[in-house]
Structures are given as structure tokens and as C-alpha cells.
Design goal:
- It is built from 32 helices and 26 strands.
- With 789 residues, the protein is α+β, with helices and mostly antiparallel strands.
- The chain has six domains: 61 residues, Helix Hairpins (Orthogonal Bundle), CATH 1.10.287; 208 residues, 2-Layer Sandwich (D-amino Acid Aminotransferase, Chain A, domain 1); 74 residues, DNA polymerase, domain 1 (Orthogonal Bundle), CATH 1.10.150.20; 80 residues, 5' to 3' exonuclease, C-terminal subdomain (DNA polymerase, domain 1, Orthogonal Bundle); 75 residues, DNA polymerase, domain 1 (Orthogonal Bundle), CATH 1.10.150.20; 72 residues, 3-Layer(aba) Sandwich (Rossmann fold).
- The relative contact order is 0.05.
- Helix 12 crosses helix 13.
- It binds 2-(butylsulfanyl)adenosine.
- 2-(butylsulfanyl)adenosine binds next to strand 3, strand 8 and strand 13.
């Protein structure tokens, strides 16, 4: 056997294996090998093909994406026209369809009793996928053409695009396929892929798609198939125009499945039209859980002989019917846009609609999210809009019907003043900034600047403040809070602690006992844990998790209040946007007053303490320099500057000679550094920041001093087994702050081993070598002792 021959055999074998894995993965949703194995096979095939380009064939899985974008789609004549389906919207229409079909099939034409029909008619039930009809042709088992439905007679050639759909076989599997085979089915985008695609579009500042169907259509109509290849499309076959494959529709589909073509796993054959109705009800219930959108179900007379007898009426088969679900989308009129004020003052537009039935529910309001969304939709008051309901989700406006825009349509205007309190409304730009990249602005919120003087904000702020996961004050429901706000008894969270027994008794629904209970619940909330207190404040973007990070890292409310945004950036999970929100929350005089009042009223966190050692140890001089955002100074150059100068004073004292002598740093960068350190304003700011790091025990030089004078300087410790009270990282950080080195294995040089639960070989080795061993409790006691020295 020639080596060329062996290579050709291996290539054929790899293609076959990969096609089988593609089928298992995409069509059956049941992969049999891990991705790594698949990738390995794919890489092997690609490499062999690169070495032997003469062996590349069009049906190879490496050839899904064609290199060339086309200028236009060419027309394709359908050999057998692609027809459409008759629709039913009510059970009655389904029964009529069955009666007509069964009468036509029955010998006795006078027979019209559906429950004891003259002939048996079995139906094949399938979901009606909401995508685009496509025809795919195979010659000698190889995909040669794919076309859109078009007008049913002529469609467009979308072969290059359909080839990129991963569950469409480029070559049929198995055997017995006819020389020419045409399959028909729906190309659609699964819900998950659709969400991800829209997220990506939004992040890139592009217009998202209104629904999965539009996304599938847009993806399939790309002239550059590379774009189609990047879209999560799938194909599901619901029929074939090739005759003689089987004697039933369902067995035709099964046969196609055997050749690697995806068919619906929901397909089901039932014995009567009653079975069809049950199928409709069942799928209807599971609709939201299906991974793709469907707009109904399709019933097809299963026996092909019976289909032939029934034939067609105009452009619709008499043997099939689509039973559609109530529309999820409707057209209606946008009567007005009102603005609501949320807890953080965000002023959000809400659409008031001319009431319309959407999927069986009356819809009169829809969310518009924010003004960016209004701009994206280009919606004006008076417009006809498409309203969409998906499951339990709040109805949304997905599109404006521009053709119907009336001449008196009015633009939606952001109010300049808060609709609730009349304060100024300001635009806050949301800034997203990754560590050393440029500021990327994305989106904006409009905020009422009234803060707690705005009743809407105050009310929402109080609801949040007393919530179970925040201050956990029992008995303060929304209705009571509303009363407290409207009667002006409470104008800030601090005022809750000033409520008197007499005042509470005045409120609706309170008597002696309930009043006393409420007051004791309020008083009982005065000693929250720090994380809860921070969360309760309702700082925009600070949820429970971020509150915990702030509490653990900084240890006191005062430090959280004082922290500069740059300091906060050192904390895990806190980015520029959140850091900015936190700092501006505490910079606000209203908020400062409330915090001062809370302190006066003796509301204090129980667990205030020192900043977390792990956090204290996280700063480096290089990282600090990086934060200055000097042009050309990202991590590498920051490192060079840090190593060269070692301290901020030295860096500030640098002259051009010093700077330009730093190895591998460009003159332009040196110049940028020089310009930066010469500016008095920048220097002051940087010095302030450094001072804060020193105050918080986070400064790199004080760490070094601490370490030199540290009680465990020069020692090597080993941690083994599981620790309960501390994480490994905390234990390691605390040891390092005390000057110890933490090693991974026990040797004669080890000074001490900390053995947690189920410690193994390292403990044994320590005992053999006679090294000191501490259990977790002893270790924690030791740490405390050394840290307090
Ligand atoms: S059968 C002659 N089966 O619905 C019968 N169509 O309204 C041709 N569709 O153009 C269609 N799921 O795009 C059939 N299981 C299914 C379907 C289905 C979706 C679409 C298809 C067709 C349209 C007809």
C-alpha cells in the first residue's frame, strides 16, 4: 500500500469519525467524546489536508466556510414547489380539517362521525419551528445545493451559508440514500444562542435582533458566509420532496435521520385527531422550556398513500395543518411614555399602550428599559409598535412599524425634572474601564438628583434598607413604609430609629402590641454585621456580594466611606464603574448626613476591625504606577519603572537622564512619564492615594518594613490538610505578613507545619523529621499572638 494511499484512507476515516461526532453532538445532543478528542481529530485532519491539498474535497468538515464572499445570491428554481400550510387558531378548525380529510379518505362519503371514522388516519405531529424554510440537495450523498423558499417556485442559492451550519451533514452517513435527495426543513436560532448573540451585539454597540427568527433570517442572508459561520444556527428537517423513501411521512423522517439529518425529537405519531389535540396541549405547556421558539404545531396525515389521495388545494396540502399558538406578538399603539423613579433615582421610561391581547393576556404597559433603548428603537409617541410577550417576562416593544407613523408623532423626551419630586434629572454616563485600557462609555442612565428628598427614591430606599438580607427589620411592609413617607414621619433611613411609640400608634392598623413589636424590631437592628449595613445603604451597583467584599477587605464603614475609587480598584471584583459609584455615593452630602445620623443614633456594625491582611498584601508599586494611566505605561513598563525607582519619591525626583536610561522603554514613554510627574496636580493626587494606602496598611514599603522586622522572618512554614476557619490564601497571606515563607513541601529546613483536617504524607514527614506541628486552633492562636506583638 503506498503511503499516499494510507494517507487518503486516514483522511477518509477522520472525515467519517468527525461527521459522526458532529451528528452525535449537534443532532442527537449526545456527544460520545470530550471536546478535546474532537479537536484533536479535527487538527489531525486539517494537518493532513494541508500537507496534501490535492486530497481536499468539498465535503470535508474543514471546508464548511468558503473563503469568498459572494456579490449577490443567485436564483434557484425548485424542482418541486415549496408550499405553505393552512393555519388553524382554534380547536374547531382542527376538527373541521380532520373531518374533511377523513371524509375524503373514507369510502362512505356520508359518514361524518369523527369518533368512529370509516378509515383510520394516523397523524404525524411535529413542532412548528419559527425560522426559515430551506431546501438542501444531496447528489451521491454530498451536499450540493441549499436554497431559501423564496416565492415557493424560485428561491435564492444559500449553499455557502447552509454549509456553515454544523448540524447539516456535508456528506450523508450510512448507505441506501438515493442518487439525488432533497430535504426540507427549518433553519432557526436556538434561544440560548440568540441571547448570546444579542449580548455580543450590545457590547459592540450594535443593534440587537428583535427575536430569534429575525436573527436567523439575518444570519442566513449574509453574502459573507464567515459571518453566517459565527452565528449559532441549526437546521431541523421536516420532510423531503424525493419520492420512494418510505410509505409514511414519519418513516421517511426516520430514514433521513439514519443518514445523519437532524429531525425533531418531538415528532410523534398519533392515532387520531384527538391525539393531535393532546399533542398540541402538551407542547403548549412545555413551550417555554423548549430550547427554540415555536409558533405552533403541524399535523400531517402520516400515510403517504393517503397524502396522495388528498392532494393539494391551491398552495396548501389537504393532508397537513398548522395549529398555531395565540400570537406572542401583536401590533398596537404607543399612547404615551411615562417615567418611573427607582431606588437609585434612575428615571426609566415605561410605555403606555393601547390595550391589546398578546398570547391571551391583555397588555397595556411595556418596559422600555432606558433612553438608549428608546433611541435604539427610534420610537415616537403615537407610533404603531410591535409588542412581544415571552413566557412570564414583562412585555417588550421590539419594533416600530415606520410605515404607520402618524404625522403628529412626538419624540420621547427625557424629563428635565423628576416627575415625583421635581428635582433636576441628570445624565450619568456609565463608564466601563478595564485596567489599562481606554475608557469605554456604554450607555447612560438618567437620574433624579433629589436623592432621599424624592419620595419615590426614599420609599424604595427604605424598602431596601429594612429588607431581610439588609437590616432585617420585621414588620415594616411596603404599605407601612408608604405611610411613613407620605405622612413625612420618616425622611431618611435614620429617621426610623427616631420613631416614637405615639407616632407608630397613629399609623393605620397599629395597636399597642404591634407598635411595641415594631419599635423593638427597629431597635434590635442597630447592630448589624458590616456587610449588611453596607448593603442596606443601597449604593448603586453594590449588591450583597460587593458589600461583603468591601466589609471583609476594609473592615470598617469609615474606611469604605473614605476610600478613593483608585483604592477600591485593588479590591477583588470591583471595577472602575462600581468604584466610581461607591465613591460618589459617599461624596454626596445628603448621604453623609444620613450616615452621621445613623452613627449618632448608635447604629454600628458589630464586626468592625482591621483591613484584611490578604487585601493589605495585594498592592505593589508597579500596580500603583499602572493605575496612573500614563500613555505607554501598561504592566511591563510599570514593572520597569517600579524596579528602577523603588519608591514614589525617587520616581518623582527622576530627571530626563534617569528616565531615558531605563532599558527597553521608548523615548516617547519616558517623555510621557516625565510630563506626568511634572504636573503638580497629578503629584498631589498620587501622594494622597499613597497616603491612603499607608493609612489602610496597604503600602508596599510598609509591608517590606514589617516583613524585615517580622517575628517569623527567615522561617519556612508548610500548610497541609483542610482549614476550617481560614482559607489557604488567608493563612498564607498572614504568615507572609509575619515574615515567613510558605513552602509546598516539608524538608529539614521547614520550621513549622500547620496540619488541618485529614493531613497526610506531609504531616507524617514532619513527624519523622521532628518538626513542630500545629493544629488549626493552635495555629490561629499563634497568629493572633504574633500579630499583636
Ligand atoms: S411542512 C407542504 N413542517 O411553516 C408542507 N413546515 O407555514 C410544507 N414549518 O414554510 C411545510 N415547522 O417554514 C412543515 N414541522 C414543520 C414545520 C414547518 C415549521 C414552517 C415552514 C413552512 C411554514 C408553513
Amino acid at each position: 500500500m503506498s503511503s499516499q494511499h494510507t494517507i487518503a484512507t486516514r483522511i477518509a476515516q477522520l472525515r467519517q469519525i468527525i461527521a459522526q461526532h458532529d451528528y452525535n453532538y449537534y443532532a442527537l445532543d449526545a456527544p460520545t467524546v470530550p471536546d478535546s478528542e474532537y479537536d484533536r481529530l479535527f487538527a489531525e485532519l486539517r494537518e493532513l489536508e494541508q500537507q496534501h491539498p490535492e486530497l481536499i474535497t468539498n465535503d470535508s468538515p474543514t471546508q464548511r466556510v468558503s473563503g469568498q464572499a459572494s456579490a449577490a445570491f443567485t436564483q434557484v428554481e425548485h424542482q418541486v414547489p415549496m408550499l405553505s400550510l393552512g393555519n388553524a387558531f382554534a380547536e374547531e378548525q382542527v376538527l373541521e380539517f380532520a373531518l374533511r380529510a377523513e371524509q375524503a379518505l373514507g369510502a362512505d362519503q356520508s359518514h361524518n362521525d369523527l369518533f368512529s371514522p370509516a378509515v383510520t388516519v394516523e397523524y404525524c405531529c411535529e413542532p412548528k419551528l419559527d425560522g426559515l424554510a430551506v431546501s438542501i440537495s444531496y447528489e451521491q450523498g454530498v451536499l450540493v445545493r441549499a436554497a431559501t423558499r423564496g416565492d415557493g417556485q424560485t428561491g435564492e442559492d444559500i449553499t455557502a451559508n447552509v454549509r456553515t451550519i454544523r448540524n447539516v451533514p456535508l456528506k450523508l452517513q450510512g448507505e441506501g440514500w438515493p442518487e439525488f435527495l432533497e430535504v426540507r426543513g427549518e433553519v432557526y436560532m436556538p434561544k440560548v444562542g440568540f441571547e448570546a448573540l444579542n449580548q455580543r451585539a450590545l457590547a459592540a454597540g450594535q443593534k440587537p435582533f428583535a427575536n430569534p427568527r429575525n436573527a436567523a433570517a439575518g444570519s442566513l442572508r449574509q453574502l459573507d458566509s464567515k459571518i453566517t459561520a459565527s452565528r449559532p444556527l441549526e437546521f431541523c428537517c421536516y420532510g423531503s420532496s424525493t419520492e420512494g423513501l418510505a410509505d409514511r411521512h414519519s418513516s421517511t423522517l426516520q430514514r433521513l435521520q439514519g443518514w445523519g439529518i437532524m429531525i425533531s425529537p418531538e415528532m410523534q405519531v398519533v392515532e387520531s385527531i384527538q391525539g393531535c389535540l393532546a399533542y398540541y396541549a402538551d407542547i403548549g405547556q412545555r413551550r417555554a422550556q423548549l430550547p427554540y421558539d415555536i409558533d405552533g404545531v403541524v399535523f400531517k396525515v402520516d400515510a403517504l398513500e393517503q397524502q396522495r389521495t388528498l392532494g393539494f388545494r391551491a398552495r396548501e396540502p389537504r393532508w397537513a395543518l398548522a395549529y398555531k399558538f395565540a400570537a406572542q406578538e401583536e401590533i398596537t399603539e404607543l399612547l404615551d411614555v411615562e417615567f418611573q423613579v427607582g431606588r437609585t433615582g434612575a428615571v426609566t421610561p415605561v410605555a403606555r399602550l393601547k390595550p391589546v391581547h398578546v398570547g391571551g393576556v391583555m397588555v397595556a404597559n411595556a418596559t422600555l428599559h432606558n433612553m438608549d433603548e428608546v433611541a435604539r428603537l427610534g420610537v415616537m409617541i403615537g407610533d404603531s409598535v410591535i409588542v412581544r410577550r415571552a413566557g412570564d417576562v414583562i412585555p417588550q416593544i421590539t419594533q416600530v412599524v415606520l410605515e404607520r407613523r402618524p404625522s403628529d408623532a412626538r419624540p420621547v423626551q427625557t424629563p428635565s425634572h423628576c416627575p415625583v419630586c421635581g428635582s433636576q434629572v441628570e445624565r450619568t454616563q456609565l463608564v466601563r474601564r478595564s485596567k489599562n485600557k481606554q475608557v469605554v462609555s456604554d450607555g447612560a442612565v438618567w437620574r433624579c438628583m433629589g436623592r432621599l428628598s424624592c419620595q419615590a427614591q426614599l420609599q424604595q430606599a427604605l424598602i431596601h434598607f429594612v429588607a431581610r438580607r439588609a437590616m432585617d427589620i420585621d414588620g415594616l411592609g411596603e404599605k407601612i413604609i408608604e405611610q411613613l413617607v407620605t405622612t413625612k414621619l420618616v425622611a431618611s433611613p435614620a429617621d426610623l430609629y427616631r420613631l416614637s411609640y405615639e407616632q407608630v400608634l397613629e399609623l393605620d392598623g397599629f395597636a399597642d402590641l404591634s407598635a411595641r413589636n415594631l419599635l423593638s424590631a427597629i431597635a434590635g437592628s442597630k447592630r448589624p454585621r458590616l456587610a449588611r449595613l453596607i448593603f442596606a445603604l443601597g449604593i448603586p451597583d453594590v449588591g450583597e456580594e460587593t458589600a461583603k467584599v468591601l466589609a471583609r477587605a476594609l473592615g470598617s464603614l469609615q474606611r469604605v466611606q473614605q476610600a478613593y475609587p483608585e483604592t477600591l480598584l485593588w479590591l477583588p471584583e470591583i471595577g472602575a464603574e462600581v468604584a466610581h459609584e461607591i465613591a460618589s455615593f459617599f461624596a454626596d452630602s445628603h448621604n453623609q448626613a444620613v450616615l452621621a445620623q445613623l452613627a449618632e443614633l448608635d447604629v454600628h456594625a458589630v464586626d468592625e476591625g482591621q483591613p484584611d491582611v490578604e487585601f493589605q498584601a495585594c498592592t505593589t508599586f508597579a500596580g500603583f504606577i499602572e493605575q496612573f494611566q500614563i500613555t505607554g505605561v501598561a504592566s511591563t513598563n510599570a514593572q520597569r519603572l517600579a524596579e528602577h525607582f523603588k519608591t514614589l519619591e525617587a520616581l518623582f525626583a527622576a530627571d530626563w537622564l534617569d528616565l531615558s536610561s531605563i532599558a527597553r522603554m521608548s523615548k516617547n514613554t519616558a517623555q510621557a512619564v516625565q510630563d506626568f510627574i511634572k504636573q503638580e496636580g497629578q503629584r498631589q493626587r498620587v501622594l494622597q492615594l499613597e497616603q491612603q494606602l499607608i493609612d489602610f496598611g496597604m503600602h508596599w514599603t510598609c509591608q517590606r518594613e514589617q516583613v524585615q522586622a517580622a517575628p517569623l522572618a527567615g522561617q519556612t512554614w508548610v500548610l497541609t490538610g483542610g482549614l476550617e476557619e481560614l482559607t489557604r490564601e488567608q493563612a498564607k497571606a498572614r504568615l507572609e505578613l509575619l515574615g515567613a515563607k510558605v513552602a509546598g513541601s516539608v524538608s529539614a529546613k521547614t520550621n513549622c507545619v500547620v496540619a488541618g483536617s485529614s493531613a497526610g504524607s506531609k504531616l507524617t514527614r514532619a513527624q519523622e523529621l521532628g518538626i513542630a506541628v500545629l493544629d488549626e486552633a493552635e495555629f490561629i492562636a499563634k497568629l493572633a499572638e504574633l500579630e499583636n506583638q
